[in-house]
Amino acid sequence: MLQLTNLTQRRNLLFFCVFGFMMAFASCADDKSKSDQDDVTLEEPEMRDEDDAYKSQKNRKAKNVKDDALKGKKKRERERVSAASMPTFTYPGCEDSDDSRQCTIDKIQDFAEENFDIKSVQDEIVEGEHTVRVNFIVDNQGRVNQVETRSESKLLKEEAKRIISSLPTMNPAMKDGKAIEATYALPVKFKIN
After folding, report:
1. What is the reported pTM?
2. CA-CA distance, 134 to 165, in Å (whole number)?
3. How far is residue 105's CA from residue 84's CA, in Å, rounded to a whole number?
4. Contacts with 43 (C-beta within 8 Å, 6 or more apart), sequence order
5. For the segment 11-60, what is each residue's pLDDT rounded down to a tens digit?
6. Secondary structure in 3-state letters for 9-47
7. Could you tell me the strand order of the sheet in which 182-192 lies?
8. Coil, helix or strand for 165?
9. What are residue 175's DSSP bridge partners?
10. Do 155 and 124 form a contact (C-beta atoms < 8 A)?
11. CA gap 135, 14 in Å, rounded
């Protein structure tokens, strides 16, 4: 009987030690500094059908950033803002719109449709609607930089990159009256007949 009680006490002690360790770990994992919680990235809902090539490219880029940091190269710092005051850039003509964000998305889509060179892709792309996921940065001067595209079609990716890179200068995102750069992601749809 004494051995059973001893064994039970040891089990209980082990259980509480493990439980305490897990609670301490979980509480530390939830502690994030304010700068980790704030972000400038403005995004539409993510598409879930990422292809393997994009994932491997993303992993290579992440590795290169780490390698550059280890080599002592300066990493470009980005301005951080709280989600409550998240800035957006606006397309020319959308400044006075009630919903300037939606107006900007619509204008970018219209610009893509107007400047789409169907001849560059029609021989290799099947008819229908195709979506290219586009990520880009609008810098503090309102210029589009670092355009990245994601699609099953290499030709559509190149065409979307060409179009988004040629967007006119926009009104940059603002924080406390100061222009800052903002990352943006949106799907661009192309209809091929």
Report:
1. 0.53
2. 11
3. 21
4. 183, 184, 185, 186
5. 776 666 566 556 655 555 444 443 343 334 444 434 343 444 445 554 55
6. HHHHHHHHHHHHHHHHHHHHHHCCCHHHHCCCCEECCCC
7. 42-43, 182-192, 128-138, 144-150
8. helix
9. 178
10. yes
11. 50
